[in-house]
Amino acid sequence: MNKLNRILVGVLAFQVLLILVFHLRGEDTSIGKLEPLLPGFAGDKVERIRIFDRTAKSDVKTPDDEEDDAAAKGKPGANPSIDLVKKKDAWVLASHFDYPVDKQKITDLTEKIADMRSRAPIASGKARQAQLEVADGAYQRKVVVTAGGKDTTFYVGSSAGQRQTSVRIAGSDDVHGVLGVTAAGVGARASAWVDTGYIDLPATRVSALDVTSEKGSFHFERSGDTWQASAGGQPVAPAKGMEIDKGEIEKVVNRVTKIYLSQPADPKRAIDKPLATVTLHLKPEPVQGAAPAAGAGADAGAQESPTEKAGEERVIEIAGTDKKDRYYVREKGRAQAALVDALSITDIIELTSDKLTKKIEEKKPATPPMGGQPGGMGGDMGEMGGMPMEGLPPGMEDPGAGDPGEVPEQ
Asked: Is the pTM here over 0.70, yes or no?
């Protein structure tokens, strides 16, 4: 037996020995079964969810993070950044003036929590907990879920590889890698849980618009595909060579019909002098399935045009804040207010009479067709650009004579 064969026999003997050792010790070498981290968790029983933002020393907060944590006092993580509370069948942001929450987002989160599963811990011990950002004092997210008056706390940390996220249940030293749940998915900003469209209307529904600000008072009324404009109660009369700037008016309309919040604001705030007040006059909304008029035949109801709801007015106030990049917006008669990005509504606040007109654009002369005649050809098909065409068959010198469909005799 040569040297190579002796080595192979030795390796085989060692493998057999290992198998015997494990077999005799009774250890199970198979892959563990996926087990839920929170057995018995029922998403439909959840009545409150508190989300605490990260407290790792390496974390650098952005201005937006600081805004959304305004409700939290004391050291980072001492109070929740987000406090979601169920009231009857609806969810609200108790941490942000009871702003309505998108219920589907709650359902998505509770389903992911229920689906957290693991075969076995990926790490254990205080040092590894801190490294994976699931320690009691250094985490990316701390989540406290209340169901039936009982709190369940877990920590969501950094990546655990293979699309998994580090998760630790409070009170346990073990860290697990789970699918589905991520720190980004457990949003610590209010905008992650609400419909950010504070005002969201089709611009085409606006029949008229009033804007009052320190720059003056303006009224715009839709007239077909154009707009009529007034400033200070007087119709805007463009000077010679000028015209109403339809694009500027439509820009203002678009700004006020699409207002997106950065975060909820205090709806009880007093506004002594708004920067601008906007009144939207809306066209009536069509109502489908209207009943046929009295005395009409059965077929009349099927062909009848839908009736319309009466038009409405919506009044929106805009005020300043202590932040240069945010404005306060509140619609009258509404229980919610919003802080919005300043750039999104600056055009409303800074509207002036000068911006309502523009120079009439000079129309460029059309490029003359080839040959100086309509159609690009000379009046005589026998000519191109005024030059005679030679070599035409007999009878084709003047195609205009006779029937062009006839074939000349040879």
From this structure: yes
